[in-house]
Amino acid sequence: MLWYYTPMAMPFSDHLSAEVVVYDNMDELSAFRGASPAMLAKENELLARADLIFTGGISLYEAKRHRHPDIRPFPSSVDEAHFAAARPRRGPQPADQESIPAPRLGFYGVIDERFDMPLLEGLAALRPDWHFIMVGPVLKIDPATLPRRPNIHWLGQKAYEDLPAYLSGWDVGLMPFALNEATRFISPTKTLEFLAAGLPVISTPIRDVVRPYGEKRLVQIARTPREFVAAAEKVMGRADPAWIAEVDRHLASTSWDLTWAAMGRLIADELGRPAPRLTPAPPAVAAAR
Hints:
4-stranded parallel beta sheet; 10 helices; Rossmann fold; single chain; 6-stranded parallel beta sheet; 2 domains; disordered C terminus; globular; alpha/beta
């Protein structure tokens, strides 16, 4: 089997024969800053060769479904048990977070051209008494462009196993994504991870967040700093049993194990073999997509 995450692997692998070729198209990589000019041409070659195409979200599937006869959407899922460890709020806090006052509103992930810096700056200016925790590596952008205020805390990259400890001390999960070409087709994994952690979530109107999470009222959708502040004031510090019950019903329908089982069946069908038996990974070490 050949399994591709990027068409740019074609030049050093297209001489290999395989019983099945899978293109796991997780993002529209050609829209990212610094993408190779050859990306689109190589993707056309890969689409012509691949037996199965998986997309990392519904909007990406809708954009590409006409380009291959067997393309299937697999939106981001979640390692629920791992992130549910954050639900006992205010447990032991990481050393670099424990001295930061509450309320804490946080984001974790790669901080790059997909992140809306003016939005964060506006939020911090409107509510100097709130503290904004930013966890993750800064890539492809000049660190000098990061907003610097006393209530914005850039904590850097953390290990996957440490994320629940950080989330346990937050009051709101933020997804302040810019609305640009790089975010047009994203399906953020952290949406479900925040929800598994029991955190209220506020996001800019990313298409694969609005559908289904905004429509189901699992996530608050906002555009401007004032809208983010209003949404945070609405959900912060208010336990809502009906909301958490709806969150848990949604989480029960998805997992990385279920995603892999569905992919495995499609691959087995392509090979004309019985589907592989699912062997779930231990919750604390299941792979994050």
